Amino acid sequence: MNANKSIGWILRIGAVTSILLILFGMALLFVNNGGSNYTLTQITSHKSQLSTANISATEVIDGVFSLNGLSYIVLGLIVLIATPVIRVLYSVYFFGQKKDRLYVLITAIVLFDLLIAIFVIPFILKVL
After folding, report:
1. DSSP label of 38
2. What is the pLDDT of residues 96-116, one digit of tens each?
């Protein structure tokens, strides 16, 4: 399989998995009238205090096992965010296999930028 087809499959699988997780989480929210000790009214309120910044990784993992709708939605968002990162990781691997140092360097810089944007900048903004 060539690189373009592999990348296409990575993006499709990531997007479809994300959509399915979010839809399943939404269905659970409606069936259970909320999740994570929030009612559906509290979740949908424009004054809601609910934020993904308030949900820890352990809460998401525990919530997935207990069929918590919010946890599935957050997991779907994590998969959606991780999809382009996985795509760039695959590109670094692919160019490394081809021994194309220039493109390994370029895609490694893109990967570094993505990781900074995902992990460092939100932390800095939270501190400020």
Report:
1. E
2. 999 999 999 999 999 999 999
Percentage helix, strand, coil for the chain under 3-state DSSP, each rounded to 5: 80, 5, 15
H helix or E strand, kind and range, residue 35: strand 34-35
Question: Strand 34-35 relative to strand 38-39: parallel, antiparallel, unpaired?
Answer: antiparallel
pLDDT 10s digits, 45-93: 777 777 777 788 899 999 999 999 999 999 999 999 999 999 999 999 9
Q: Terminal CA-to-CA distance of the chain, rounded, Å?
A: 46
Q: Beta-carbon neighbour count of residue 52 at 10 Å? A: 11
User: Phi-psi region for residue 48, left (φ > 0), alpha (ψ -120 to 50) or beta?
Assistant: beta
pTM for this predicted structure:
0.85
